[in-house]
Write a structure and sequence with these properties.
With 211 residues, the protein is of the alpha+beta class. Helix content is 27%, strand content 25%.
Length: 211
């Protein structure tokens, strides 16, 4: 495990000593933000801890500890994680460029990565790092579903169906939604979704991650 740099020994007073004392909290702050950035990047891709760990050649326990700030990654570990996520190492230690206000024009909605087949997501929100909410406009192809295994993870989801039909199963209970219906649930419960019809469905999909 990498350790934080310490203030070099020297005189109790002086410009050099004072500069180091100021720099150390700044370094600690950036290191403490690594976990949140890593968790946000993983959640944005819909990956489990095990999936990211496999791609990075690390153990799920190590990834979990880094996300929860229980372990500071070595440079080698950070390089592996960054490569697995398609990010540069500097991304995890630099200040985010995202402002407190983000405006996304209707014709500038970027496609959001998802591992789910038959689901097209177009971004509605600011980056899933500085903000706790991620939103997307979803198009769900006929008969598409979230897969054979129910998902569960910290946070909440709020889905408003704007066209077609969707079915959600949360904690073993099925909920059929038509256009205009919405569902809001805690994602710690096992959950899944599907489009049970032969027509595409559209929805506004909001995800709130655990702070």
């Amino acid at each position: 495990m990498a350790t934080l740099p310490t203030v070099p020994a020297g005189p109790a007073k002086g410009a050099a000593d004072g500069g180091a004392a100021v720099a150390l909290p700044e370094i600690e702050r950036k290191v403490s933000g690594l976990g949140a950035k890593l968790a946000a990047e993983r959640a944005e891709r819909g990956w489990s801890l095990a999936q990211l760990a496999q791609r990075a050649g690390m153990s799920p326990a190590a990834v979990h500890k880094i996300e929860k700030n229980g372990m500071t990654p070595t440079i080698a570990s950070l390089m592996k994680i960054a490569a697995a996520l398609g990010r540069s190492v500097s991304y995890f230690v630099e200040e985010p460029a995202t402002p407190d206000v983000t405006v996304i024009r209707a014709d500038e909605r970027a496609q959001v990565y998802t591992s789910k087949q038959g689901l097209d997501l177009r971004n509605l929100s600011g980056r899933y790092g500085p903000f706790l909410i991620a939103g997307a406009e979803a198009v769900v192809e006929p008969r598409a579903d979230s897969g054979p295994t129910p998902m569960n993870h910290p946070g909440e989801e709020l889905v408003l169906v704007t066209e077609g039909t969707m079915e959600f199963v949360v904690a073993g209970e099925a909920h059929r939604l038509e256009a205009g219906d919405s569902i809001h649930f805690r994602t710690l419960h096992p959950h899944s979704w599907r489009n049970p019809t032969d027509d595409p469905a559209r929805a506004v999909w909001l995800v709130v991650r655990s702070s």
